[in-house]
# Entry
Amino acid sequence: MQNTQNQEMTDGMHIMVEALKMNGLDTVFGVIGIPVTDMARHMQEVGLRYIGFRHEQSAGNAAAISGFMTQKPGICLTVSAPGFLNGLTALATATVNGFPMIQISGSSERPKIDLQQGDYEGLDQMNVAKPFCKAAYRIDRPEDIAIGLARAIRAAVSGRPGGVYLDLTTALLGSMIDKASATKTLFKVLEPAPKSIPASTSIDRALTLLAAAKKPLIIIGKGAAYAQADANIKAFVEKTGIPFLPMSMAKGLLPDDHPQSAAAARGLVMKEADVVMLIGARLNWLLAHGKGKHWNPDGKLIQIDIEPQEIDSNRRIDAPIVGDIASAMDAMVAGLGTHNIKPQSDWVDSVNKEKEQNFVKMDAKLNSTSIPMNYFNALKAVRDVLDKNKDIYVVNEGANTLDDGRNVINMYYPRRRFDCGTWGVMGVGMGYVIGAAITGKKQVVAIEGDSAFGFSGMEVETICRYHLPVTILIFNNGGIYKGSDPNLGGGVDPSPTTLMADAHYEKMIEAFGGVGYHATTPDEIKKYLEQGIASKKPTIINCVIDPAVGTESGHIGNLNPKSAVKV
# Structure
């Protein structure tokens, strides 16, 4: 574009796109509309990949899981007001999970918003976003775009990663500036996530405590998976011989069939361990806050975390190590030469005995021949196929589908399993599926409860539009938790937990050119899953599960209070 002096001009949209490109942020997930439509076009024009979704929450979830996989902030682009709010749930979820993500939203005219004059989609988005993310910034001038993006990148990936909101006003997007001046403002962010080296005294204290332990345990969280310190974590576990317990999104950092895995003896090891080392795992509700009947009250704790405020958050930490996990594990492995760490043989024996007993119990469930299927014999069919396709990404959500799937499906590589995470959010599934397929460039298998699938199911059109190698298994028991609950009032309406047990979800994907299957037996699940993986085509397998099976709220029914008044 030329002005009257024949000076080449550019605008805010183009500058933002060039800033993203310069910083290697080459994929954007979003939903376009006023005022960001042209910006998405410019992204494609300069070689960035724009993935268009049907709902902003799914786009945000895709960006978040991309950030977890790559350690670079995933980018979500939304329109103003309602679109911004739709994406905000994903931004908040990313922040709670520790996933780096930047939500970029267009916003309406500032003067009209500030005077509350009722502008189109008028909302003070930056201030709305602040409580739900690590940082929120608004860019008002085109010459500040590169600085604004730099601040967002650093906030997203430094310290504990999380979500950042970046507000682009309508005026900014259309602001004109000469191209030469704009180009001078652009730069690549250097070392946005510098190492945080833990104190040597904290390393020695932790190793000394482990050396004195008789019944040590290592708990590996998704923070450890994010850190990509895989080799050193594996070396530390194997050199010490300590049993380890992986949290769900840390599964595969060491393979689930590793002889030191204590996943099948979770109850025993948490209750009896005298020293527990937490690597990137927080003592939140997922670990019963580190106390109560599930924990040894006299046990001592070692915690590796980059966030100082996480230490002593629920109970005393005897050996805190504050620093990034990669640096901490470098030091922990190096320190093994001066500390003799080895669990007592009777501790290892008791863990292995508990595992064997629980394997027998699980095998009985998995080999059930019930028809209609239950969760376990259906999941066994899935496990048998995935054990032959170990490098595939797995997305898992639901109540019973998630809880039982986590226990049955084995993972063999790090950062291959994605689920509802810290908040237990349902509806992340299709966003995670698309984000994983685009970012990882591998096949994805999603294991979905029918209720969980409903939150983002329309994204199967997105999956088909981009020809992604995705196979979705929907465990259809016709309900939220289960589909057999009655209407206590005796009316014709279904109960609050009832969905359609006879729904043919496989027809949805057929409408968009994908492949659909209807499975009523474990053998059919196995056959159709093998076909879906082999074809690399978008596929849905509707797995018919007995409506009467399923536990209220899955494994966390204690969090769902029951009315004391009987109807």
